[in-house]
Amino acid sequence: MPPKSSAGKDKDLATEDDVLQAVILADSFNTRFRPLTLGKPRCLLPVCNATLLDWTFESLVLAGVQEIFVICRSYPEQVKSAIRASKWSEPTTGIKIVPIITSKECFTPGDALRDIYTHGIIKTDFVLVMGDLVSNVRIDEVVRIHKERRKVNKDAIMTMVVKESGAVHRTRSRADYGIFVLDSQTSQCLHYEAAVGYPPTRRVPIPRDVLAEHPEVEIRNDLIDCCIDVCSVEVPSLFQDNFDYGDIRRDFVHGVLTSDLLMKDIYCYVIKEGYASRVSDTRSYDSVSKDILSRWTFPLVPDDNHPGGHAYEYLRGNTYIAKDNSVVLSRTCRVNANTLIGAHTTVAPGAVVTASVIGQRCTIGPNVTLSHAYVFDDTHIEADAVVEQSIVGSGVRIGEGARVERGCLVGDGVTLGKGARLGAFERVSRRRASSEDEESDEEWEEVEKNQGDTSAILGPGSNAIVWPKGPSEDDDELEVERFDNQRLMRIGDAAADLLAQAEADESDSSEDEGDESDVSSFAPLSRTSSFSSVSATTAATQSSIAALSSAAAESEFLSEVTQSLERAFAEGHSVENAAVELKTLRMASNVDLRRVREAVVAAIVDRVPLTQDFAVQKREIARLVARWGPLINQIGGVDPVETVEVLQYHCAKSPRLQLFGPLLAQLYQDDIVDEDDIRQWHVTPAARGEGLKPGALLDGVKYGWVVGQKLIEQFDAQESDDESDDDDE
Amino acid sequence: MSDPAVLSAINHRAVDAYIAKLRRRQVVGSREAALETLRVLRQVVSKARFSNIEQLTGIIRGVGGRLVEAQPKEHSVGNTIRKILHHVRDEYNAASKATKAKESRSERTEYSLANFISQGQIRKDSVWPTLHQPLAEDEAPITLRENDSNDPDSFAKVMKPVVMDAIQDVLDELETVYDNIAKTAREHINPDEIILTIGHSKTVEAFLKAAAHYRSYTVIVAETGPSYSGHTMAKALSAAGISTFLVPDSSIYALMSRVTKVVLGAHAILATGGMFAITGSLLAATAARTHSTPVVVCAGQFKFTPLWNLYHEYGALDFADPSSVLGFEEGALVDKVEVLNPYYDYVAPDLVDVFVTNDGDHPPSSIYRLIKETYDDEDTTLEYKSK
């Protein structure tokens, strides 16, 4: 008999042509949960006593997904056995779960998607989620809309699900978020820009054509990115084609939307009803747990539809106690609001539990204080201990009178001795027995080697090692993963000092406002210029870290381009091949076209030998420009005015100042720039060197301008010869 | 020792699917849940193998136990199961009595005072197996052959149609429940009355619409936040040509002095005579009590729940997500304010004047008796007890 409920009907709709497939990326590709994730994958961390993977499965099954591929990288055997042991693998659930193990060399979601492509498992539109999703959203509705849109527009390759929240929200990451530019009518995503919390992202470049082509545009900074993407089959193949795409948002979405080649559309679906969020860091672990306990995820709440299959009784003040009467709460203990206590747990007299989650089979000793703490299964906390705003792994023993201050992460199996004192944001893990043959981990070994005297912190008889605090030496190049930014993702870290500092920076930059307005007059220089490039040109005047970091990225790009051009010159590549290579590089590091132009011009200029013999030099210039000149116009856009300006500035900076005249003449001869371009360049304020500080650079620029002046005079003379006409100069 | 045949029937696929739906709140509403329960039960029984009454009731109880455990707040699921069990036992007892009568007709002819008293007792003889303890020997296997080793399916062959009939009876009752309640509407509503109602109860809607055929009267519908189901109710009533006002919840008390009757729907009616009804019902009922306005509750019999003390349980009010009260986008508030959004109110029996059911009108004080007649005592808690 067919099910008559509305859910059944929806299911039929979703499956009208094929089964609905989903892909879970069950790996975090980062180490934010260390040391809790030593020895087990992040997706098996419990949230409200059910593993993240269970929450994710439940979210997908709610949407009528029938086939789920779980992509696992770290500890794949554990993930596999967890799936096998869970209720999802029972035949009656009607879903098929296939774990897929990728290689260790899979470092980004992009790598995982390339792996999916090579497996060839995706037959139709699919739902792509991360393995740390908690959601009660009807994804099937999004899938339906996506499919309808695909019928009209074949280029709509992806629909991103985003949840409206305020700009400030406990569940919205402060450190890693996105700015969405949406078309108000169609909710097409026109532009995406990733932002970080520290150094705070203040400027977001938006391409002009976005504003030009769409009459109504929403720029939104109040969306929680749930990382639920309804993708069409092309998505993995796009990842395959663009081998440098790593992150789905930062690289793929941004890349597709800014690409002038791909011509693909991405849409957003802003959910008004329902809840969806990711547990992407310890801070969101805290906030998602609180959201679950305050029932935002209803009906996915512990007393109703607990994904782990436990039964909890809901009591006054959002308190949940396991239902099977196995919990022992002593008469004098206090269980305050927003607390969940798992089965077979004992809370001794005088203990105070506030806004905490306690796993199964735990014992909480007399007079223990737990406040905003997350305690996994089988953990014993002895008398008078205090745990605040921390995550304590499973099988942990916290000794008598120990203190665990806010923000601590205590790894599985750790024993903390009597009177241990873990300071704020301390991370400890168990010392490995030498016989254990686990996955080797350089960082872990490093930490083990560098243990000083830690008995004061860990107490007597502890088996733990302390992880270093503060930024590591090889701080990540990726902005999101830098230590200061990571602080905004830590549980219990208000990061008030960071935010205050950011505030101070802000007031600094507002003082610079005067400079900024000068700068914006540069904007008409290049047609593709965006706000970020403008600020980058004035990086020298601003000492902000943001500018420095973008400068660092650019210098890396420049060295790449230089190397690539050197290869091209040395090996005699064709102009077309060299152009393709440059385009790829530009897209990979996402820099402005002007930078590429600068690099090409610089490469040509630097090839010219410095000799006193002008005839030789002239011949050499003619040969070089004839061979490589066309490259300037093949890098993705033709802008001769900019070319001249770039040439001028490069010559002004280098000792080859004298070459400016001959090179300009040669460019003119080879029709790379024509007369009007030179005239146009000549009247721009930049050509005259306005806004530059007096010095060698200004002198160089002035020299270039004078040379240009002479050339124009020549043109004028020629013209008056030819036509004896009047002239506007 | 658990019976494999019973267990396999209890763990039927359809039961699992329905449990998942109940837990995910894909089936909501008392009547929907009751109908779906019957459909699932029909599937289970049609496939099940059983050779005596204990196995049969074990299967039904087991299914009921699992469903109730999965979603204890949809009371109609358990009630439906209890009702089916009651029907099945009745039918079985009738059949076995007939069998017994054939065998020992002589014993029955004797009339004595003791015999008379025992027969006069309510349903005492139908409580099985207390009176028919030595069952296997006692039963004459003419129409009902239990535990027949030659033909183990013979009992099922006889009983299956009986169970199916019972299920069909209850289904029919559910299908016609609105009509039967609406039948008496004319007697409850007088001309030119002003009726206040709250929420969108299908029963109340049918009741008021039926009354509109005979009387002209006015209905005031409260908006019923945060679900605002009062809006759809007001639309439905005014579409039927009833003069309807939609008022904010805050004005219920102010308007009560003009209201002549309060008509409410119910989610579940407890054995105390109290009930669970949509949030705001308690407010309306209390206001009505202050003004001595009669409170009439329209509900199908399937909402009678043999539970007494649910109102002690905090969670019984079924707390939903806070988003309809406080938007999730209010980021600054979400962290600081705890919002509770109970779906139901518990309305105590002294606030209700009469229950209008498809089985006649009853005061709250006699609900317990109706419940005792409708269900068997042993089914108050449903679970499969393996012996």
UniProtKB/TrEMBL annotation, chain A:
What PROSITE patterns does the record tag this protein with?
W2
Q: Which SUPFAM superfamilies does the record match to this protein? A: ARM repeat, Nucleotide-diphospho-sugar transferases, Trimeric LpxA-like enzymes
Which cellular component, as a GO term, is one annotated location? cytosol
Boundaries of each W2 domain copy? 551-725
Q: What would be an example GO MF term here?
A: translation initiation factor activity
Q: Where is the composition biased (Acidic residues)?
A: 436-446, 503-518
Q: Which Gene3D superfamilies match?
A: 1.25.40.180, Hexapeptide repeat proteins (2.160.10.10), Spore Coat Polysaccharide Biosynthesis Protein SpsA, Chain A (3.90.550.10)
Q: Where in the cell is it found?
A: Cytoplasm, Cytosol
Q: Which UniProt keywords apply?
A: Cytoplasm, Initiation factor, Protein biosynthesis, Transferase
**CDD domains, per this entry?**
eIF-2B_epsilon_N, W2_eIF2B_epsilon
Q: Where is this region: Disordered?
A: 428-478, 501-523
Oligomeric and partner information: Component of the translation initiation factor 2B (eIF2B) complex which is a heterodecamer of two sets of five different subunits: alpha, beta, gamma, delta and epsilon. Subunits alpha, beta and delta comprise a regulatory subcomplex and subunits epsilon and gamma comprise a catalytic subcomplex. Within the complex, the hexameric regulatory complex resides at the center, with the two heterodimeric catalytic subcomplexes bound on opposite sides.
Q: Which family does it belong to?
A: Belongs to the eIF-2B gamma/epsilon subunits family.
Q: Which PANTHER family match?
A: TRANSLATION INITIATION FACTOR EIF-2B SUBUNIT EPSILON
Q: What is this protein called?
A: Translation initiation factor eIF2B subunit epsilon
Q: Which organism is it from?
A: Phanerochaete sordida
Upper lineage ranks?
Eukaryota, Fungi, Dikarya, Basidiomycota, Agaricomycotina
Automatic annotation (TrEMBL), chain B:
Compartment list: Cytoplasm, Cytosol
Query: Any one cellular component term from GO for this entry?
Result: eukaryotic translation initiation factor 2B complex
* Protein biosynthesis keyword on record: yes
Which keywords belong to this entry? Cytoplasm, Initiation factor, Protein biosynthesis
Q: GO molecular-function annotation terms?
A: guanyl-nucleotide exchange factor activity; translation initiation factor activity
Annotated signal peptide: none
Q: Which domain of life is it from?
A: Eukaryota
Q: Name one Pfam family in it.
A: IF-2B
For this protein, the parts annotated as crossing the membrane are none
Q: Which family does it belong to?
A: Belongs to the eIF-2B alpha/beta/delta subunits family.
Protein name per Swiss-Prot or TrEMBL = Translation initiation factor eIF2B subunit beta
Query: What organism is recorded for this protein?
Result: Phanerochaete sordida
